[in-house]
């Protein structure tokens, strides 16, 4: 029997994309032998309805620039093209149609996102459709185990843990740094730093 293709999905608001996202995606790609990682910027994030999210075009362009130099990374604007809130369940179903049944999808998340997993739209159906990798600090593994237990045997089969050093970086912190005129050098790729400056984002 031939091995199934493995494709990673890195979903996020990417407002802006930072090296925490990139380092995590690359670590999971290598650990799980993923053919590629699809970065999918959220269109209208369901959990960020009230906040001011930067227009999708800027977030998409920054994600393309940040991932361009990695031949295994690519950006799919499918959530940007969809009207209304973007739910992972719809995205995963779309990818299953695109890649067919002979592909295993691995949805990559950081610690915060994986802990919220039980609250995701149609999560019981979703967990039957794709794998999840929670990239988290060794110290947070126990919290992740509680999430796995919540889903019983399917959880053990579908939710994986990858211990990573987890860089203390968030887009929230980057936006605040820009607003306060502090440096974001080396926290985001150089191209993203220049783009933020040129477009006057986050000020
Ligand atoms: P914000 O502060 O606006 O919430 P964020 O930095 O958390 O932004 P998102 O776009 O919300 O970035 O996150 C997308 C995915 O990346 C989520 O799965 C999140 O857990 C993960 N992630 C975010 N920051 C890191 C990091 N420093 N290391 C590893 N994964 C991360
Ligand atoms: Mg976040």
TrEMBL record:
Keyword Lyase: no
Cytoplasm recorded as keyword: no
Record GO biological process: NAD+ biosynthetic process
Location of the Cytidyltransferase-like domain: 9-177
SUPFAM superfamilies (UniProt xref): Nucleotidylyl transferase
A molecular-function term among this protein's GO annotations: nicotinate-nucleotide adenylyltransferase activity
Pathway: Cofactor biosynthesis; NAD(+) biosynthesis
EC numbers, comma separated: 2.7.7.18
Enzyme class: transferase
Keywords in alphabetical order: ATP-binding, NAD, Nucleotide-binding, Nucleotidyltransferase, Pyridine nucleotide biosynthesis, Transferase
CDD domains, A to Z: NMNAT
HAMAP family: NaMN_adenylyltr
Protein name (Swiss-Prot/TrEMBL): Putative nicotinate-nucleotide adenylyltransferase
Source species: bioreactor metagenome
Lineage: unclassified sequences, metagenomes, ecological metagenomes
Gene that specifies this protein: nadD_4
């Amino acid at each position: 029997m031939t091995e199934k293709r493995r494709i990673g999905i890195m979903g996020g608001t990417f407002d802006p994309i930072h090296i925490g996202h990139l380092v995590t995606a690359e670590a999971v790609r290598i650990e799980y032998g993923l053919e590629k990682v699809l970065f999918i910027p959220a269109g209208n994030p369901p959990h960020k309805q009230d906040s001011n999210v930067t227009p999708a075009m800027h977030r998409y362009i920054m994600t393309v620039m940040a991932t361009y130099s990695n031949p295994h990374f690519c950006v799919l604007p499918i959530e940007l093209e969809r009207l209304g809130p973007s739910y992972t369940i719809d995205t995963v179903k779309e990818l299953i149609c695109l890649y067919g049944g002979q592909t295993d999808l691995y949805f990559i998340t950081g610690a915060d996102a994986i802990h919220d997993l039980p609250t995701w739209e149609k999560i019981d159906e979703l967990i039957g459709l794709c794998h999840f990798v929670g990239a988290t600090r060794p110290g947070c593994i126990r919290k992740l185990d509680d999430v796995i237990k919540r889903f019983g045997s399917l959880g053990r089969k579908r939710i994986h843990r990858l211990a990573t050093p987890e860089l203390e970086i968030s887009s929230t912190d980057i936006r605040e740094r820009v607003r306060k005129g502090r440096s974001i050098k080396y926290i985001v790729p150089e191209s993203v730093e220049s783009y933020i400056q040129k477009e006057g984002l986050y000020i």
